[in-house]
Amino acid sequence: xxxxxxxxxxxxxxxxxxxxxxxxxxxxxxxxxxxxxxxxxxxxxxxxxxxxxxxxxxxxxxxxxxxxxxxxxxxxxxxxxxxxxxxxxxxxxxxxxxxxxxxxxxxxxxxxxxxxxxxxxxxxxxxxxxxxxxxxxxxxxxxxxxxxxxxxxxxxxxxxxxxxxxxxxxxxxxxxxxxxxxxxxxxxxxxxxxxxxxxxxxxxxxxxxxxxxxxxxxxxxxxxxxxxxxxxxxxxxxxxxxxxxxx
Amino acid sequence: xxxxxxxxxxxxxxxxxxxxxxxxxxxxxxxxxxxxxxxxxxxxxxxxxxxxxxxxxxxxxxxxxxxxxxxxxxxxxxxxxxxxxxxxxxxxxxxxxxxxxxxxxxxxxxxxxxxxxxxxxxxxxxxxxxxxxxxxxxxxxxxxxxxxxxxxxxxxxxxxxxxxxxxxxxxxxxxxxxxxxxxxxxxxxxxxxxxxxxxxxxxxxxxxxxxxxxxxxxxxxxxxxxxxxxxxxxxxxxxxxxxxxxx
Lengths: 247, 247
Description:
Methyltransferase, Cobalt-precorrin-4 Transmethylase, Domain 2; disordered C terminus; five-stranded mixed sheet; 2 domains; homodimer; five-stranded parallel sheet; Cobalt-precorrin-4 Transmethylase, domain 1; alpha/beta
């Protein structure tokens, strides 16, 4: 790495509300001469839309076009090509900010750029507000307390794996629902947990939807989540508890 | 709730770096006539310290004093009393912002105020950057990808529960280490996962410490965490995961 090399920034831009950007991400975003972001082949980039009001016409933009319906990798070629374009800017000494929905390292595609570029260029990751915490806030449901185990489970897992993981935790979040939703809901009903679950969709955006899981049917979007709690303690609502030391 | 009632805000202030506050939390914090926060009986409040530069002398402060070093006690009286003081301000029509380290509903004590006040006063939760995501960013280790299951486990769990939970996930974060650290590290070594784990302490603060877990011994503070990965998928782990944490 020469001193003239630019820095690669992975910027978490939060779950959707532009006001859920951190001060740090905003500062680095505004200062970056080059801004890259995932984009669908048709339509607008969600990550870019979140920060659109903070961008300026002087910034070069690099959309990383990932075809909508490609769920399974070999997306390697897409990220190889994106890394090459971004690497060229970094080599010229220009910083590049990569926009990441939610948090960059929490199920984010940024890691595919990271693994291709971080060994060659200075890299900084700015954590962001995750959709899991944003869903908990919007639903007004505490996520985990005291000694609860919290498990985050991708919806595409098969029923056996999903069920086992749900039953190994007090609190759980099931993400990436999309077309898996009806199956996941049926499984949760089988486990007797339907009334201990809530559903959140497009959290923190104007079109946010919040419902008891029991009341949700039909198709749901990819940006949706189930939050559940199966702890047996009076836990979250309890009065006497293992107190965390105050700081 | 009368129209003249104030609003209770649970503000996530992030893991420690004041710049990891969200724009929304900052706006609501500055506008709040009353600011409450957990505080130790001796020394300064960590939550307050994070936002100290944003506070003004006109704001009324309500420290919620939770005795240090007491791990188990009926804390109900403390939160009853705090809820009463905060409720009195809300009833007068004044908004109250409660500062929460990290995220309010992710192992946060805010939920004890929430359960006492949310049925009587308008309440809004502003999610924050969690220390788990901040540790992943600082360590430059992706947390979870694709269909990984991520489990967050409190360190005080006994060995059998800890081991079972670790083995039911691809990625894991062990929090609330403190005095449990030597036992947890020994367990991880027994499971053959020592070299797949990294350690982070006081993440995002100037005194942050990042180390391979193997290199950590002795006492560790409460604000410390182990991140581990036991998944078998190769993709994201090449550069990122099996590498010593970089600074």
